[in-house]
């Protein structure tokens, strides 16, 4: 990274930063003019890959539609996904749809504000009136489709150690299914891929199977290939009801496994 450079392209009042290694990043702004500037920069080889950061799903979506975006920085945590907090823009289902659209378009998401600016870590400030741990918030963000990395702010070495402890955390420590208690009505019954319902007696990875199915429905051409690589497919579900009885999000998983099996043909 020794030759890393940072430039700002001249462009009215808006900022377009170009970081060395050919990655350009936009932070919101008036899209038509920005789009023109970026196309020019791409044509001239100043930028080889484009990134965009925004808190607004509609802005992300409009830029995704240009087909120019490779990377998205977006604020993701359970509070924002449930339409609460400063940047809780969009409904739970619309935000989930956005993540699937990013995956389909091959745009990786880097997550900002995974702890909701720290509010989620404290019962007094959390909109859920219950604290989550950093580990739970990181796992939640990593489970969303298209998410490649989570970038929490760190103020000191202790913050950094706290974040890195995620790497040694057990499955129980990572389990964020407690948020099922706060699920808004419009998100109830939707699988969030948390795998709290494990273990499945037949060894089905319920979260992954559901994620690949949702991605396939969203038009992600790679999803079928990922599904094919799973050792145990939805068709092997014996309808025992164990997962359904354990799911805090009230997902009708037995019926869903039949639907998924029909869709993929196994
Ligand atoms: S069925 Fe429920 S518990 Fe299982 S992965 Fe989906 S949301 Fe989580
Ligand atoms: S209902 Fe199917 S997916 Fe769920 S635990 Fe039983 S066998 Fe596994």
Describe this structure in words.
The protein has 266 residues and is of the alpha/beta class. The chain has a domain at 189-266. The chain is 36% helix and 13% strand. It has helices spanning 31-43, 57-64, 78-81, 92-105, 134-143, 157-164, 171-174, 206-217, 223-229, 242-246, 253-264; strands at 6-8, 16-19, 23-27, 49-54, 69-75, 108-112, 147-150. The chain is globular, with a radius of gyration of 20 Å. The structure holds iron/sulfur cluster (2 copies).
Q: Quick summary of this structure?
A:
This protein is of the alpha/beta class and 266 residues long. The protein has eleven helices and seven strands. Helices cover 36% and strands 13% of the residues.
Tell me the helix content.
25-40%
**Distance linking N and C termini:** 47 Å
Average pLDDT works out at: 87
Main β-sheet, spatial strand arrangement: 1-2-3-4-5-6-7
Question: Proportion of β residues?
Answer: 5-15%
Structural class: alpha/beta
Oligomeric assembly? single chain
Number of helices: 11
Which features would summarize this protein structure in a list?
11 helices, binds iron/sulfur cluster, alpha/beta, 266 residues, 7-stranded mixed sheet
List the helices and strands and how they pair.
Elements: E1 6-8, E2 16-19, E3 23-27, H1 31-43, E4 49-54, H2 57-64, E5 69-75, H3 78-81, H4 92-105, E6 108-112, H5 134-143, E7 147-150, H6 157-164, H7 171-174, H8 206-217, H9 223-229, H10 242-246, H11 253-264
Parallel strand pairs: 3-4, 4-5, 5-6, 6-7
Antiparallel strand pairs: 1-2, 2-3
Helix pairs in contact: 2-4, 8-9, 8-11
Bound molecules: iron/sulfur cluster (2 copies).
